[in-house]
TrEMBL record, chain A:
It comes from the Eukaryota. Residues 95-170 form the PUA domain. It comes from Malurus elegans. GO terms for cellular component: nucleolus. CDD domains: Nip7_N_euk, PUA_Nip7-like. This is 60S ribosome subunit biogenesis protein NIP7 homolog. SUPFAM superfamilies: Pre-PUA domain, PUA domain-like. The gene is Nip7. It holds the Pfam family pre-PUA_NIP7.
Automatic annotation (TrEMBL), chain B:
This is Ribosome biogenesis regulatory protein. The keyword Cytoplasm does not apply. One of its GO terms (cellular component) is nucleus. Involved in ribosomal large subunit assembly. It comes from Malurus cyaneus samueli.
Length: 180, 329
């Protein structure tokens, strides 16, 4: 476990800012204690100072997951968000998409959101903007990338993809062994 | 007559002997051999057998080739090869276009085919268009040179022609060399430097006894800049770390373009739509008014408010849930 280098921090922040914009500040500078990002086995964990101090005494090989995993660095040093970051993306998300109850299941099985399943979408969502996907009952289901801007969404046919799937809470079941 | 019969018998015996010899080397093949004499190649399509013998058909095929002879030498004229042998080396890369070719392609200039011979009216014969004994005569070899209007009458026009030709030749040569240099130019300075660095340390002594090139620095910088990889301590100054990250965030915010074109376009589109809606509203007042009111109601209204008609701005769902989530994490 080690702190992120500057390049790594930048990569993480740039990826996070696609979903929560400048709200990353609220993650970095929190009133309820000191929180930080740490790298462990190529994965980025977000954890409190208190937890950090506890985890520091655990040997590296024995340490499975300190704090919340935000995602991991690929071998080519790109940062990928994982669904475990959803808890921190959802409350601060700037652009949101709500899916209809009928297509919730489809999304949770890892499919893209089609226009027919689109309940609501934040106004002025640009194309390829990172969005957080909610059910109509405001339960965060995952996140993805807007395939169409809000304006275009009104015109496309019902079978067109509106949100590209990136992660969903179904992965907790499907990829249970790799989510740490 | 007896001499004749003896001769015949001897010849027959010799023929028989020859046939006997040949029998040991004749081979029966189910499929005939295929010959490609151009490559001096014989293809045997039969399944291989354990013992292989040199066969007669080869010799026959060769003897079928056209024979020719000169003084004390004999050779055979082989036909064109039919079997296409794969080439050993990859085909040569096409020459990169010269500067003129690039320019010509840009401008769409095509080469015009010109005959090499043109009719010379004076000489009454076909002559080369260019070069020695060309049509119209070589201007530099002319016995008379015209003094152009406005030129210095004292100037030697022959000398001028010679000088101009020399200049043209020199310029052509320079351009040719430039084109060559452009074709051979390495991709990048940095790439060259990197290659030089690798080449330098790729000796048995890791470059220790490698003589230095004239402009080579005494100490080549290593890839990492001579620094060891070092990370911040795990439990260092957390406050400093936080302030550094906040600084970085501020920096990233600054870099964003002032005008986001897609957003601007979307905004414009929305404005136009709103204007159109307002214009419509004037015509059908009652219906529009009702709809508008329904839209403003918070939360989800009736069944029809699906994807077809998105409400303008969703309620910021952050707030309350956000706090709860944070505590959980």
């Amino acid at each position: 476990m080690r702190p992120l280098t500057e390049a790594e921090t930048r990569a993480v922040f740039e990826k996070l800012s696609k979903y929560i914009g400048e709200n990353i500040q609220l993650l970095v500078d929190r009133p309820d204690g000191t929180y930080c990002f740490r790298l462990h086995r190529d994965r980025v964990y977000y954890l409190s100072e208190k937890l950090l101090k506890l985890a520091a005494s655990v040997p590296r090989d024995s340490l499975v997951a300190p704090g919340t995993c935000f995602g991991k660095f690929t071998k080519s040093q790109k940062f990928r968000l994982s669904v475990t970051a959803l808890d921190f993306l959802a409350p601060y998300a700037k652009y949101k998409v709500w899916v209809k109850p009928g297509s919730e299941q489809s999304f949770l099985y890892g499919n893209h959101v089609l226009k027919s399943g689109l309940g609501r979408i934040t106004e002025s969502t640009a194309q390829y903007q990172g969005v957080v996907v909610y059910s109509m009952a405001d339960v965060p289901l995952g996140f993805g990338v807007a395939a169409k801007s809000t304006q275009e969404c009104r015109k496309v046919d019902p079978l067109a993809i509106v949100v590209f799937h990136q992660a969903d809470v179904g992965e907790y079941v499907r990829n249970e062994d790799t989510l740490t | 007559a007896p001499g004749r019969s003896v001769e015949k018998a001897v010849l027959a015996a010799a023929e028989e002997q020859e046939a006997e010899k040949r029998r040991s080397i004749t081979v029966e093949k189910e499929l005939e051999l295929e010959f490609d004499l151009g490559n001096l190649l014989a293809l045997d399509r039969n399944p291989p057998r354990r013992r292989r013998c040199a066969g007669g058909p080869r010799r026959e095929a060769l003897s079928a080739a056209e024979r020719a002879g000169g003084a004390g030498a004999r050779w055979a004229q082989l036909p064109e090869p039919t079997f296409r042998l794969p080439r050993e080396k990859p085909p040569p890369k096409p020459r990169p276009p010269t500067r003129w070719e690039q320019f010509a392609r840009l401008k769409g200039i095509r080469r015009k085919k010109k005959t090499s011979l043109v009719w010379d009216e004076q000489a009454k014969e076909w002559r080369r268009r260019w070069g020695y004994r060309r049509a119209g005569g070589d201007p530099s070899r002319a016995w008379l040179a015209e003094v152009p209007a406005g030129a210095d009458p004292e100037e030697d026009q022959f000398a001028r022609l010679r000088r101009e030709k020399r200049e043209r030749v020199a310029r052509n040569e320079l351009n040719r060399l430039r084109n060559l240099a452009r074709a051979h130019r390495a991709a990048d300075r940095d790439e060259l430097r990197q290659v030089a660095r690798v080449a330098r340390v790729s000796t048995a002594s890791l470059g220790r006894f490698q003589p230095r090139l004239p402009k080579e620095p005494s100490e080549l910088p290593s890839r990492s800049g001579g620094k060891k990889r070092r990370f911040e301590p795990l439990l260092g100054n957390l406050a400093a770390e936080r302030s550094r990250q906040l600084e970085m965030l501020r920096d990233m915010g600054k870099k964003k373009p002032v005008l986001d074109i897609t957003r601007a376009v979307n905004k414009q589109l929305r404005q136009e739509e709103a204007e159109a809606a307002a214009a419509n509203k004037g015509k059908k007042q009652s219906k529009r008014g009702k709809r508008g009111r329904r839209q403003q109601r918070p939360g989800r209204s009736g069944k029809k408010s699906g994807a077809r008609r998105q409400p303008q701005q969703q309620k910021p769902a952050g707030g309350g849930t956000g706090g709860g989530k944070r505590k959980k994490a």
